[in-house]
Write a structure and sequence with these properties.
Layout (H helix, E strand, L loop, with lengths): L3 E12 L2 E12 L3 E6 L5 H8 L7 E6 L2 E3 L4 H6 L2 E4 L11 H6 L5 E2 L2 E2 L1 H14 L15 H14 L4 E5 L7 H16 L3 E5 L3 H7 L2 E6 L2 E7 L5 H9 L17 E11 L6 E11 L3 E5 L6 H9 L6 E6 L2 E2 L5 H6 L2 E4 L3 H5 L6 H5 L10 E2 L2 E2 L1 H15 L16 H14 L4 E5 L7 H16 L3 E6 L2 H7 L2 E6 L2 E6 L6 H8 L15
Parallel strand pairs: 3-10, 3-11, 6-9, 9-10, 15-22, 15-23, 18-21, 21-22
Antiparallel strand pairs: 1-2, 1-4, 4-5, 7-8, 11-12, 13-14, 13-16, 16-17, 19-20, 23-24
Helix pairs in contact: 13-14
Length: 515
């Protein structure tokens, strides 16, 4: 008989209007990496939140090492050796790395904090597992990848044996993902047991021993990863065959829609400018991708383009009109749609309902208001139409509070709103971050449809497969400068990687703004 360190047996968890987990059984062996795969809203995070004590199941039991346990809250979970890295990190931004790691388990003698003792342990753990961090840095000053290391160190500091990773690679660069997967393997080799929620089939194939698949809250089966394929897993997950390549005709670029000349943008972190003298055009009927390793100025570029930051110098023209000093709303009404990088900070008002978020960019238009009074019936009708067309899953339909939706469905809501709005330019920043393969396939098709409808699409992506598959032209950004323009049909991931790392560059004279 198999010995399992954790058994979740017949777990059922309900929310208003939805059964998030419907009679699910999951068994974790000691020392294994067990992947949990499913579409957005399939119930993966909910199931792990039940194990971590954030939610209580209506039915079912949890056993550890064969004995039934009650987990009423995260403190109970920690006491049982269960730790969790959440999809949206649970860190105090104004605290240091060290303060976050020891929060709640501060070592003290007679009421006095033993900070040097804690620091020693943190440095030992960071060295041992290759999780290099600066214990004195403030969370608000470090990258997302570093913040994730802090979350992992929080678990290791508490001597957790069962580690839950909820979408750990959704916000990481390809290089950081590689490092994280290696860290996970090392932890499993040390005897830690890992539950790994992800949408990314390549990662499952690379590091997992077994994989449990959920679909719409139901258990679809558990398979040995070495005996399966990506195609079989995606079929179990979405119930149909998925196309992993993007089907599109040759681009037919027309007039220039976006023209950027000598753009320079200040950096908030250091004295150098984040974007330095960047010029390029995007035409109607083409998808131009700005590719680069995270932290090379993409965020500042997008903030300046969409009106969140001011330019130091240079100009931005949209459909021939200078918008360099226009407000965000003026840019939006002038034909710009924006799928932002940070869906919580810049994409949604989390405590608004789904229908309110879907009309955020348009509630003042005739369709939705009369003499300053919102036409709620029209808003509801419009929201229901978008929910249907973009398959946005939520417990209470248009009335769902957006905060309660899964990350992937929050992303779909933003994409639906921005694509449906009248626009000439679609700025799509990490549009498929945190989405499952079925949703990614759909979003890529939407981007190509926008292009074929004669719109200009500017894609900013860290996913190399996405860059190569979706773009018609690739502009590589390195340390705030455009260092190369590549045709995806005439290049490969290796060459693209050399440009992205700064090892190779075209001179600016060679970079032409032709379609």
């Amino acid at each position: 008989m198999e010995n399992y360190i954790v058994e979740m047996l017949n777990i059922t968890k309900e929310f208003p209007g939805i059964i998030a987990n419907d009679d699910i059984t999951l068994k974790l062996k000691k020392g294994e990496i067990h992947a949990l795969l499913g579409e957005n809203g399939a119930g993966k995070s909910t199931l792990m939140s039940v194990l971590f004590g954030l939610y209580q199941a209506e039915k079912g039991i949890i056993k550890m090492n064969g004995k039934e346990v009650k987990i009423n809250n995260p403190n109970d979970a920690n006491a049982l050796g269960i730790g969790m890295v959440h999809q949206h990190f649970k860190l105090v931004e104004v605290f240091t790395v060290l303060e976050n790691i020891i929060l709640g388990v501060e070592p003290n003698k007679m009421g006095f904090l033993q900070e040097s003792e804690a620091k020693e342990k943190v440095l030992y753990l960071s060295e041992k597992y290759g999780l290099k961090v600066n214990p004195d840095a403030l969370i608000e000053d470090i990258s997302v990848g570093m913040q994730q290391r802090v979350e992992i160190l929080k678990m290791l500091y508490r001597d957790n044996e069962i580690l839950i990773f909820d979408e750990p690679t959704a916000v990481l660069t390809p290089q950081e993902i590689k490092e994280l997967l290696k860290i996970m393997k090392d932890l499993a080799n040390e005897g830690k047991s890992i539950l790994f929620i992800t949408h990314k089939l390549n990662e499952i194939m690379e590091v997992s021993d077994r994989c449990t698949v959920l679909r719409k809250g139901k258990y679809m089966g558990t398979v040995d990863v070495k005996d399966t394929t990506k195609e079989e897993l995606s079929r179990m997950m979405v119930g149909r065959d998925i196309t992993f390549t993007v089907e599109k005709e040759e681009a037919k670029p027309k007039d220039v829609v976006l023209s950027i000349k000598n753009m320079t943008v200040a950096s908030k972190i250091h004295k150098n400018n984040a974007i330095r003298d960047v010029s390029f055009d995007v035409r109607a009927g083409e998808i131009v991708c700005l590719a680069g390793i995270d932290g090379n100025g993409q965020t500042e570029f997008v903030h300046a383009l969409t009106g969140l930051e001011k330019l130091v110098s240079g100009s931005i023209k949209l459909c021939g009109k200078d918008i360099s000093r226009s407000s965000i709303r003026q840019r939006s009404m002038g034909g710009m749609s924006h799928i932002p990088e940070d869906r919580h900070k810049h994409g949604l008002v989390l405590d608004y309902t789904l229908e309110e978020n879907l009309v955020l960019q348009r509630y003042w238009q005739k369709q939705f208001q009369n003499n300053g009074f919102i036409k709620f019936g029209e808003v509801r009708k419009y929201a229901e139409d978008l929910i249907e067309r973009f398959d946005i899953r939520s417990g209470q339909g248009p009335e769902t509070i957006t905060r309660s939706m899964s990350g992937g469905n929050q992303q779909k809501a933003i994409i639906a709103r921005e694509i449906d709005k009248e626009h000439e330019l679609l700025v799509a920043v990490q549009p498929t971050r945190g989405l499952d393969v079925g949703a990614i396939e759909y979003i890529h098709k939407q981007l190509v449809d926008r292009r074929d409808a004669g719109k200009a699409v500017l894609l900013i992506s860290l996913e190399l497969d996405e860059v190569m598959n979706v773009s018609d032209r690739i502009l590589v950004i390195y340390e705030g400068e455009i260092v190369g323009e590549l045709n995806p049909k005439e290049t490969n991931v290796q060459e693209l990687g050399l440009y992205m790392s700064g090892a190779k560059r075209n001179t600016s004279k060679e970079i032409k703004n032709e379609g």
